[in-house]
Structures are given as structure tokens and as C-alpha cells.
């Protein structure tokens, strides 16, 4: 028997800038609710949420972790997430599993770059939001100014639900303004009566009938007000602001009460939409008996070399019993479940049945991946694909010990299973094994994991920039390949014209042979001969793109012509035409978005321009500024370090590939010279 029902479940996801106190808040919540016997700490490595070795070492959350506690009859699922964009993948995936986001803002640091970003993500998902101001025990806190800044940046739906009794060293707890205590403590910060009025007004605004009653000065009973509060939180009409000290574990009970009484259960929260695969139409899946069949959203995977793969999903509708089977809509396969578990950090507790609202893990089921929908095979449905930012930071890696090449690639691929912002590729051009992630820090964690989990140590260096080659003018050339060396000779003559095509057009081959100057059967050989040169490149050994070749004339010999002869002739003709068509290098350009406190604006835009960046736009978000620019990939290889030093770690950025553009002539010669020197050095080594 499960000791709770869906109506009792509350699932919250912690969101907030790095070091804003999410994990510490989770520890305080668990401790207060009696789920742990001591208050865990990130600093001394005793957190049950940050249990992973990398998180302990870095003192930052790197992967989401899932915990639960019971508070006043409510079964509260808690998902702690990383606050830094480097590890944002687990923050993104956790959003699909929760009804409410608990957004932490540090009282000492205020709204930071990722606070706004994560707020927007929660709004887009349509889940409820609660703000918790942490570190209220910190120095020099102007709480009123912080509340103003929250309202200015995040909107007037944010209203205080509690007010602190003193701040800093003098912080003693909070006053809950939903029901004012009598008498009020003297040290309460702000006007508790007007905060009470503002809160009640905000709550009743979510319901026209209640609003009318309120305006008429009629009494509204507590239960009605409470259920309206839940509706207002679920719909995003009211975002209660609380505050607490995790260090002193003060103010935390009110956070638990707010989750228990004012946040939506799976029955009241976000209505999840899916595609009914049989009817091919959108349906709403409910946690009630309206949707009796099982469906769940897969949102997390953990790969352990000893235990194998654990996969986590959120049950949206219906039930799943252990030892039964489910259907994976993505792979279209039925899987046997085996045991199912509830998780508490690194602990797994077997359960016999999962109900709507539960977060459940299964072990060693290889066929389910993040973002998959699993369901009853008689009712196949599919939730929307979870989308991730495109990772852009790369490192080339080489195993330290010889012979580990195959294993390293295999293990890296295993790690991509749990991290959708991490990629592995083998660059056939440079023969490098390249790992790509959100940042250098992200890749360092991956390299650590490779060592810790699989015992593989690697050396890493910046990968080569994936330049391409192209032409900027028309030209033409011809080549006659003729050899007579006893027996059969070789003969093929090819006349071509080449011309540039727009960026991204690739390669076009046009056969304009008339009158059989080259017989039909040799035309594919001509194209193949050119293709081989395109793949190998002519300037620096990178692919040649964006051009059209017209084959317009040639000649052949009845006996000596062959496919091989035409391939050779075509390659020579193309090489000659290319050299006369003003060849250039193309460089990858990325779109970058930098988020910084406004005071760094001048320095950041100046720095981007000096790196050949073009500023494309700016947005003011309260005290923050978002700067968007297009910039060559080669210019920002070290941008992470530069931004950190320019802003003292207060800036963050994301980037994604945009397009290829011509590398300016004055840089082209030095790139060519540099690459040729590197090739020569490599050749010498070999
Ligand atoms: N004084 C004080 N310190 C706090 C409080 N909450 C957190 N801290 C400290 O702030 C630092 C960061 O706290 P974390 O809980 O790790 O922050 P986080 O938001 O989980 O950070 P990431 O996992 O990196 O995103 C730690 O050194 C905590 O001890 C608080 O309420 N008061
Ligand atoms: Mg954390």
C-alpha cells in the first residue's frame, strides 16, 4: 500500500542562480520535515542532494537530485537542480517533472543573470512559481529594496507572503501575512498590515466572484481563500515571496507550509498535453481517473559502471506496477519493468506501484532515454520533445595510455546518454576525438567522470577550428590525362567551368556534355574525381563547399579511356580551376548572448567588437543587460575566462552556431601558414 494519494503529492523544482542557496534550502526543508536527522551542508560535503563526487569537489550542484519528505500529510517531491548554465541540461529536464518552481534569490546578491533566465523558463513551461529569498541572515541587507527589485524585474505578480523579523545577525524568523499574528513582533521588516492587504487582493484577483465579494467588504472564509491561493499560484497569477536562513534553519517551516497548503497538487497543477498517436491529435492527460491509462515523461538518466543505467520518469496519468511492462512511444518497443523505485538522493527505495504525480526510477532498462514517453501500449501517447541549447565549447581528447582509443569513445558515448548538452564526435578531417559541451567547466567535469567512473585518463587541447574552403570568382580549366605505357593506355580529357554558390548551398555538378564528347558512362567518374578533391581541400586540407561545376566538354579514346583516367583528369582540371577562382577560407560564426549586470555593458560590447563581433541587439531586464552578437568562433575560444575576469564571475553567456562567412584576407594567410607549419611538424613526428 502506498501511504499517500495523488491529491497529497506536491512536486517542486528548485531553480536559481548558482550559489543562491538551492541545495542548502533542500537540506533545510528535509531536516525540518524530519526526512534527515542532521542539517546537511554543501560546504562540508554532507548534503544528501549534492552526493555526487564532482558536486562535492566543486561545491556546486552538477546533476539534478530527487528527494522527498512528508509535511503535514503532504508527500513533497523535491528536485534540486544546478544553477549554472554549464549544467543547465538537468535544470531543463527537471522542469517537465514538477508542478511548481521554487525560485531562490540570495538576499546578499539579489537578482542575478540566471535568476531571470530560469524565471522565463518556468513561465514558458506554465508551472507555478514561489520565490524564496535565502541568506536573509547575511550582512547589509536592504529587504525593501530587494522586494522592489524583484517586482521591477519579475513583475507585480510577486507579492510577499512572509516578512522577516530582523535581518542579518538579528534575523529571528518570519511573520506570515496570510494570517497575521496578534500581536505583531516589533522587529518585523516592513508594514505587515499593508502586506496582508496586498496579498489577499492579489489572491482574490484570480477569481472574479471572490473579487466582487472582497470589494463588497464581505467575509471570505479561510478554506475558500486557500483554494483560490492554490489556483492563483498554479496559474501564475500570484507568486508568493518568502525568506529564510538556511544557516539558522529559520523561516523554513513557512516554506514547507506554503508548498503544502498553497502549491498545486498534480490534480490542480499544469495540464500536460501529449499527442495521441492513434488519433494523431493533441490530448490533455490528467492525473485523475479521466485518464485511466499509464503515461510518464522520462527526464533523467544516470550511468554507473557498476550499477548500470538508472532512468527516472514522472508519472503523468494512470498507474504502473512493478514487474509489469510499458511501451516506449519513441522506440516503439515494449519493455519489461522489473523493480520500480522511489529515490532519495543516491538511495533507491523499491515500491510496488507508481501513481500519478510520482517520480520513479527503473534500473537497467536500456531502451529508455531522456525525453521519451513511456505508456500503456494500448494507448500510445507522446509528450513534446525536450529541447536543449546547442553546446559550442569543444576540446580534442587523447587517452593517456595507448590502446584506450576504442574504450574512450565508447565511455564518452555512454556519458552522452545522461547529458543532452554533451556530444562526442570523431573529426575525420583532423582525426581528432572532439568532445563538445556548454563550457570548459562542463567538459572538465566530463573528463573527471571519465576517470572516476571508467578509469580512463585523457589529455585535452583546443580542437582545430572547422574552417571550410570556397571560391569567390568564376573560372575554367581543362586537363588531358594521357599515358602510354605498353598494353592499355590511359586517356581522358575534361573541360570544366566553376562558379561560386551562396553560403550553405554545398556542391552542384552540372552535366552539359552534348554530342557525346565524353561518353555517358564516364560522367560519374568525372564527378567522383572532383568530389575527392572537394573532401580533401586544397588550401588547408578542409572541405571545399558552395560552388557549382559545369562539365561542358572533353574527349575520349575508344580503347584507352577508363573511369580511372577521367577521375584523374577531372581532379587535375578542378584543382587548376579552383586556384584561379580566388579561393578563400570560410570561418564558422556563432550567435552569442551575454547576460551581465548593466555596469559592465561598455566593457563587454567593446570587447566583443574588438573580437570582430557585430552587436545585433540588447535587452534591458531590470538591472541586467542581455547583449546579442554574431562573432567568429575562433575569436571566442577563451571567452569563458575573459568574461569571468571582466565581470568577476557575474556574467554568463550562451552561443550557438549561426553560419559560415569569409575569413578576412589579412587573417587567411596567417591561418594557412599556421596550419601548414602544424602539418609539417606532425609529419616530422610520424
Ligand atoms: N549565511 C547563509 N549562507 C547560505 C544560505 N544558504 C546557502 N548558503 C551558502 O551559500 C553557498 C551556496 O549554497 P548552495 O546551497 O550550494 O547554493 P546552490 O544554489 O545550490 O548552488 P548551485 O548548486 O551551484 O547552483 C554555500 O556556501 C551555503 O552554505 C543561507 O541562508 N545563509
Ligand atoms: Mg546546489
Blueprint (SSEs and pairs):
Layout: E1 9-15, H1 22-32, H2 53-58, E2 65-71, E3 74-80, H3 88-94, E4 100-106, H4 113-125, E5 128-134, H5 143-154, E6 158-160, E7 162-165, E8 173-176, H6 192-204, H7 208-215, H8 222-234, E9 239-243, H9 252-262, E10 272-276, E11 281-285, E12 295-304, E13 308-317, E14 320-321, E15 325-328, E16 333-336, E17 340-344, E18 347-351, E19 353-354, E20 359-363, E21 373-375, E22 381-382, E23 393-399, H10 405-418, E24 423-427, E25 432-437, H11 440-454, E26 458-461, E27 468-471, E28 475-483, E29 490-500, E30 507-511, H12 523-536, E31 547-555, H13 563-579, E32 583-597, H14 601-610, E33 614-621, E34 624-632, H15 639-647, E35 652-662, H16 665-685
Parallel strand pairs: 1-3, 1-4, 4-5, 5-9, 6-9, 30-31
Antiparallel strand pairs: 2-3, 7-8, 10-11, 10-22, 12-13, 12-21, 13-20, 14-19, 15-16, 15-21, 17-18, 17-20, 23-25, 23-26, 24-25, 27-32, 28-29, 29-31, 32-34, 32-35, 33-34
Bound molecules: guanosine-5'-triphosphate and magnesium ion.
